[in-house]
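Running low. Invent one:
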Amino acid sequence: MLGRIGSPEDVAGAVAYLATADFVTGTSLVVDGGSLLQSMRLGPA
């Protein structure tokens, strides 16, 4: 987790990639600074 709120520029890079990538036909791209991974931490094995 990056510890900050995302800026429009953070999201713009992902949007530009999806708008120009010829081989990507559909995907869910999470642009959240790692928050999703933070919430998915596994407990001790």
About this structure: Residues 8-39 form one domain.
